[in-house]
Every structure is written in structure tokens, then in C-alpha cells.
């Protein structure tokens, strides 16, 4: 696996279980990279959807990818506090092209007061049938959803009090 250096910019590619591209983020700046972890940042970055639509993110964000868990976390820095969008996904891989993962539809949206909502369970069920997710995969994904809920409740990892501030301050030290 390629390990990019801090300050490098890479693309992020999200796929569906059937191998089709789902979404591409034009770039994130790598803040920390190890074989099992990548912390990045972006601000108003271009996003391309599989149907050809494009849009820009609205605010700075710190991104957290791990190969030890089946989820990734986007920490969006807004005027009213930190909002988190958590994707249940395959562990990430890196190659010459991009950071890549499979998006499994289940998401958790976390608000600044740390209340949260599980999203897209209907979409998960539909895609599970459509793409024939194996039972073992579904068990892994729901177990990881519970792990992510515990992280939120325990303020672990990206949900800890100073995580976003620390990494956003670090991001600001790089030339744009």
C-alpha cells in the first residue's frame, strides 16, 4: 500500500459493492498517513457523483479513514459546531490513483450536541438484495455500526473533544 506524505493531495473514490463508482472527491490534503490510518482535510472541494452531477462541499472538513474498521468519518466544521457524517464502508485502500473504499449505504449523522441518527437503512436493505450481500458481510456491517455508536457515546477518536481542532489547526499550517 502506498503511504502518502503529509501535505500531499489525493483523490478519494467511493464505490458500491458491485464495483461501480459512487462518488469522487477531487482532493483531500493528507495530514497524517500510516498503513492503517489516513487523516485528511479539505475545504469547498469538488465532488463528482456517478450520474455526472457535481457539487462543492460547503465547509472545511477533517476526514478520518481507517483500515481497522468498516467505517469512515467526515467532520464538518460549521458555524454552529462540528457535524459528523459517518459512512459504514469497507476499510480503505490506497493505490497510485486514489484512496478507495466501498460505501455500504448505512450512515450515521452526528450533531454538535453528540445526538445522532442512523440513516439510509432502507437503501441498505434494497442494495443488499440487489447486489446479494453475503450474510457474513451484513453481520460485519451491523457490528461496525454498533462500534461506531459506541465511539460516539464514548467520544472516542474523531469524536473526542480536541480531535477536530487539533487537525484543523494543523491543516491551516500548509500553504493552500
UniProtKB/TrEMBL annotation:
The record's SUPFAM superfamilies line, in alphabetical order, gives:
FomD-like
Q: Name one GO molecular function term.
A: metal ion binding
Q: Can you tell which superkingdom this protein's organism belongs to?
A: Bacteria
The record's keywords, sorted A to Z, are:
Hydrolase, Magnesium, Metal-binding
Q: State which residue ranges cross the membrane.
A: none
Query: Does the record bear Magnesium in its keywords?
Result: yes
Instruction: Report the residue ranges that make up the DUF402 domain in this protein.
Output: 18-156
Q: Name one Pfam family in it.
A: DUF402
What are the boundaries of the signal sequence?
A: none
NCBIfam families noted in UniProt = PRK13662.1
This one is known as DUF402 domain-containing protein
Amino acid at each position: 500500500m502506498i503511504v502518502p506524505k503529509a501535505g500531499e493531495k489525493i483523490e478519494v473514490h467511493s464505490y458500491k459493492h458491485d464495483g461501480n463508482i459512487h462518488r469522487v472527491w477531487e482532493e483531500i490534503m493528507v495530514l497524517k498517513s500510516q498503513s492503517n490510518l489516513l487523516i485528511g482535510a479539505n475545504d469547498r472541494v469538488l465532488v463528482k457523483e456517478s450520474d455526472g452531477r457535481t457539487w462543492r462541499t460547503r465547509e472545511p472538513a477533517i476526514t478520518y479513514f481507517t483500515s481497522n474498521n468498516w467505517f469512515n468519518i467526515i467532520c464538518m466544521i460549521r458555524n454552529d459546531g462540528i457535524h459528523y457524517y459517518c459512512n459504514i464502508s469497507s476499510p480503505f485502500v490506497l493505490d497510485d490513483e486514489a484512496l478507495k473504499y466501498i460505501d455500504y449505504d448505512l450512515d450515521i449523522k452526528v450533531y454538535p450536541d453528540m445526538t445522532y441518527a442512523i440513516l439510509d437503512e432502507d437503501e441498505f436493505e434494497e442494495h443488499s438484495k440487489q447486489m446479494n450481500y453475503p450474510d457474513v458481510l451484513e453481520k460485519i456491517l451491523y457490528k461496525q455500526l454498533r462500534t461506531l455508536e459506541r465511539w460516539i457515546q464514548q467520544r472516542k477518536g474523531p469524536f473526542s473533544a480536541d480531535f477536530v481542532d487539533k487537525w484543523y489547526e494543523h491543516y491551516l499550517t500548509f500553504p493552500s
